[in-house]
Amino acid sequence: MGLFDQLAIRDSIEIRTTPEKIWEFFYNLEQNYTSWHPEHVVFKWTEGPPMESGSAWYAEEVSLGKLKKLKGTIDEVIPNRKIVFKNVFPVSLVSPRFEWHIEPTGSNSVFTAINYLRAEGLYRTIARETMETAIKASRKHMKEEGENLRKILEHQE
Q: Which domains does the chain have, with CATH numbers?
């Protein structure tokens, strides 16, 4: 792997619900964020309407025991199918974006979260242990988010 290659951390889960119900959950993320994962603190749309390209957002969550304050914009939206979040500097140096994909599969849907890490090879060279810990924590958090989303939405049915 090159020094500036990106690593895509991916987690998928099948949920017994429609793409529209998953989209609705994310459209109301300000209300749903803290119930989605115990490490989530706050999510706010700071400019523009929810789930629209160009809208800005702010979030706080605990990661590896530390409060992280995140800001970004929505880069791409395909209603009921895909949303791409772009992080702003300085987080964008390490994680430029993350995506959520929703695919219908019969009467169910598959939710896939993808977190992109920039300069993965460089960071592994300079700070291998720190990077490995961050990757492991990201995988765990994404898996828990998927499982929690399934529990929330399947319980609503």
A: 7-156 (3.30.530.20)
